Amino acid sequence: MNRLNNIYKKRARVLLMAAILLVGCTADDDTAVQQDDTLQLAAYTRDYTDITTRADGYNPYQPEDVTSIGIFMTPPDEGKALSLEYFSYNGFKWQSNIGVKARKYYIYGFMPGDVIDKSKCSISPLSGDYANGAVLTLDGLKPISKTDVCVIVGVGETTDPSASTANNAQLGSFLYDGTGKGKGQHYVNLLMDHIYSCLQFRMKVTEQYAQVRTIKLKRMELKSSKISATKAVITLTANTTGANPIGDNISWATPTGETGMSMVLFESEEGEALSDTKELLLSGNIIPECTDEMTLVTTYDVYDRKGNLVRKDCEAPNKLPSSLVLSTLKAGERQPVALTVAPTYIYVLSDPDLDNPTVTF
Question: Considering the entire predicted model, what is its pTM?
């Protein structure tokens, strides 16, 4: 009996020691958390620049869906980037668990944070120092994508994260100065810019055709015959003049033996009726290297003036013509592409012709 009591006492002492150690660890963790604060965010993206208008400007980035921004941060005196962390958007507001202290940081990153696997993105300092900028590598991107991939091109601290303008954020500056800020005061503005170009397809039917037939678009697919995956190497050059740090410094590396890919830009089982007065706008994001080998494939149904289905699942493939100067598109530029659905011989308007329209640029 005494032996059992001794065993129980020893076990109790062991359990007590374990509890003391556990409490000690927990207390240390709490202290560490109290020493840090959480960095909060207000993000802004630049509008795509139409090559015909050259409009510009940054607007608050408030996505419709849950998303994230991948962030690399480094204190200036450490000279190396921390591991990749994330700002997350829950559908209503930006949230962060990124701990910061009252000091300075360089901030680089990209969105959306889940566009590639975490293991396929990396960063290195430009000329050996993040004060000069950084080289950001994103591997495994799609050459044609519905996702608008952007990178951070400007950073600035703010006291009002709900502001509609990017206060204190300047292009080419990646320094966040948290010096002297207390708990709950670490707010940062981020300026984001596109690394893809954009094709905006504007579809309609001719007035004559709309009087006798209805076209319902069911599917639009953009295909590349050459590339299925690519790697973007983005050089971000820090500056104090407010110049865009990207410039023309994006290189795309394509693996050998690629067989091409396709991206569905629009799909509807019932179909979307095209109008002769209002254009249907559909967009796709592309990289310059695949623009000379792209084909647009549209699938549609044809109805007569009484609403009867005349032809089902018609398919019209169109190679994008060189007249669209796609090869000269740069990152952040948008090329409008007008598509008109019309009979093959509009001056005849014969029934067989009406039932087999063409899609022309």
Answer: 0.77
